[in-house]
Amino acid sequence: MVSTWEDFYAKHPPPQDLAQNEQALKEFTRKHLEAGNKVVLVTSGGTTVPLEHNTVRFVDNFSAGTRGSVSAEYFLEYGYAVIFMYRVKSLEPFSRHFIGQKFLDLLQVSNNNENSVITVLPEYTQKVATVLRKYREAFNKKKLLQLTFTTFSEYLWLLRSACQALAPLENKAILYLAAAVSDFYIPSNEMSIHKISSSGPPTISLQLVPKILAPLVSLWVPKAFVVSFKLETDESLLISKARTALNKYHHNLVIANMLQTRKQQVIIVSKETNYVLSLTNEQLDNGEEIEQLIVRDLIEKHIK
Ligand code: 9Z3
To answer: In this entry, which stretches build a coiled coil (predicted)?
Structure first.
């Protein structure tokens, strides 16, 4: 059974930090509306589906948040203000360059009298300085607002609030929906309160999620430029599924990608046409990013 989107919001309580996030959204969009700036909402990372109210276990997906975090940086570079709505602990713009071991490998430690001095290795200084400058500029100029979600329900509540804040921007609002959103969930009233017992094999029944693109396009931000993503693992379905989504929701573009090749190739699907954007192996090895091609293509060819 598929619940309707109205049903979903009626039956699932809003996250605790929603009012605070709505305030931040309101201030951000008002400032950029007054300044005449375009604002893009980038969603990024995967949603979880909890199996219990007191959540010990949940269903998750593979998304690392690369597509969203890299694209957000390029939108900023092209002068857009960015609302970056991302899964807690997934990749974020700018800090993504310095995560895990990569971060420690940039540093060296020496001694100055009694004190340890930590510096960036000379061969990395330029790169760190470039990223750091862009990061500071984005925040100092208040061009970047970051908001988080974890569960599918938190994502849906935050998405609707973000749309409500973006609506006054009309066609100066762009939605770039790169988050990997669960197709199935357990409704709140069917979820176990406590940790599912391991005394026997559990029976877990998932439902189809309400298709949120429908109200988003027709009611919440009808004048915005909306880009959704379609992920498949079977190439023979990719274009037809992307086209079905466009015909059903009447938004502007679908960016279709395969799980296995998503960092190297995407297909831009519009009502009229579809074409491939791709990087050669050499470009990929040199650190070029397909998101730069995607964002440039959108800005040059599609967003008016
Ligand atoms: C995508 O297809 C993204 O490009 C990826 C990016 C999730 C593949 P990573 O974060 O991966 O860089 O590791 N996102 C959209 C997937 C999705 O859930 N689409 C839904 C659908 O196809 C709704 S818009 O129905």
So the answer is: none
